[in-house]
């Protein structure tokens, strides 16, 4: 016999399925927009090569994972060519590139108080493309490229990954809880939350843990370890997604979304747990990680001056899959966590989003 709860769950999941299928047709950016972004990337590459002829500009983030929505920015990393030999020459590059971009007519600004130097720039609307494009350029950031490929590999394992990411991103943007600069979580953070749910929580799992697959014998050390400054990171994961067995989980997208909301509303221990997708089981404790009190630490700006980095906060603890000392949830401040990422959304919206079919249509427009 079907219990009342099971029937209720099934109805909510059905409604979410209807919502998701309409949304997915609307959210993905049109092909023309993607091609404008790729063209801008080509133009930027040419500009970078004026500074260093064999420099590379490598995209990462949603343009590569396929998780882009209409408002997505371009993320890319500048790798200087072999002409740049000394650390001093490298240190000068961000401000040289900033100047060059400004000369080329872009609105560009170098931020040095961030964790790593970054140029934020905007391409103004043009006659061909009426929408402005935002672009972030980072420097020598291998790990961002690596974790982008991890996300892409997970997306290749099961078609529901991308669908779920697009729906959750749509919802978080509508809810104004996808603004790391304003106290809430980055898109990358939401993707890690989704992966944790699909790898560790839903049964049977939708995804295997790619970081815990057997390492093939002929794997070189470079494929396992990455050295950055004084730190060595374990960056290995299985990219051989072709040989991964398809999931035994037959849930619809609506059922998975329903389960995701349910998990983060009622089951996940926000106060004591750390999401860690590299770990068996997917969870660590804040206590064991020492992620209990907010900290601030000294850091250097590109010009070598000492500064204080933004405080590390552990209200919401979400471990980066490779840079395990980095809390991706650090951007969530008090109001952002309790009024937003933790409470507002998961409790209230689960009820709203999963209400009647008529309600779903209304929420789509109102949320
Ligand atoms: P949209 O730009 O919102 O479409 O999403 P996105 O998928 O590009 O994600 P986002 O811009 O948040 O992050 C881009 C990439 O930055 C991620 O894919 C990661 O590779 C990298 N990254 C590494 N650490 C962090 C972090 O702490 N916060 C964010 N935001 N990104 C990180
Ligand atoms: Mg992005």
TrEMBL record:
Coiled-coil zones: none
Span of domain PAP-associated: 252-326
Protein localization: Cytoplasm
A GO BP annotation: RNA 3'-end processing
Chief place where the protein resides: cytoplasm
Enzyme Commission numbers on file: 2.7.7.19
Name the record gives this protein: polynucleotide adenylyltransferase
Organismal lineage: Eukaryota, Fungi, Dikarya, Ascomycota, Pezizomycotina
